[in-house]
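User: Could you walk me through two proteins back to back? I'd like the raw sequence and the structure tokens for each, with a short line separating them so I can tell where one ends and the next begins.

Assistant: Of course. Protein one, sequence then structure:
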Amino acid sequence: QLSGKWFLVGMASHCSYLAEHSHQLEATTVTMTVLDGQSLAISTFRKLDRMCWEIRQHYLPAQAPGRFLLKGHRKSSKVDVVVGEADPSSFIILYYQKGRSISVKLYGWSSRVSDAVVDKFEQRARAVGLSQDVTYYFPTYGFCDSADEFHVLDGEL
């Protein structure tokens, strides 16, 4: 259900970097591939200093369906990923939890989603204590489709 190319539409987070650099958000796409029926291979494409980068990550299956684990280099840097809500024909809402910090991301099959989907996303964010002032929306133009071999980051957080 999650396989395919998704556009990052919005994100709610208390991340200070995001708050300080929200005026520099870049159009971001994610290609998800389900491996071995359980884990996810994630390729994120975005611009950094006007160059297209690909960031590759591997989400391991966790205890229950719709739950994944993104391992970091240290034990303390693991991230729990949970599918909050999904309509595979139009959107996915994912929760990312690292320690006590939580973020919510909205992905769409296209860079624009319906107002009803945006409302669902904002309700989900508010439900975990993330208000409108820490909710950011990404540009709907300027996407990267690929990155050359010198602009690939492989691995974990």
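----
Protein two, same layout:
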Amino acid sequence: AADKINLIPQDFFAELCEQIIQHLNHKIPGVNTAELCQRIQTSGIEINVGDLAKIVNIISFLFSTAASNNLSTEELITTLGNAVTALPKHAVQVIRHVWNEQGKSISVSEDARSMATVGQFVDIKWKLGVAMSSDTCRSLKYPYVTVTLKVADPSGQITDKSFEMTVPQFKNFYRQFKEMAAVLETV
């Protein structure tokens, strides 16, 4: 991962570290690696979303471990120097700066730890479509609903999950959401 971190310009790496800190502080649901990866690629850097997601996981683990052990900035940098010799100098500088500025704000409560094992719902989008025809059937006229859920996994990486439903399936889905809303009203 160190060679991939070396590819990321310092400003993008700093933004990534800031987003990870915000995620660990529960201020944002996660790091949108797809959007950040696209911006990095637009700047001319060859990196894929999978590699960026691994970097997010590593830095997130680094910050959360440092927070749970109450490491000072110097202790963190010393530990990094002893453990990871191949980490690029600009990355160490960014980690030092971000940890120095915001590291103490990370709260590692038991509630946060237990909640971290489950993903977090971020957004939902849906659209209605009609399949007009296919190569095997000339006239389908089949309506369907496409639903896209945006979910932040425990490491903070935001992913989209999409699925299609028939209109009756969507009506059942909608009915179940209404039932959940009614139950939540009583709480």
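Residues 1-116 form one domain.

Let me know if you want the two compared in more detail.
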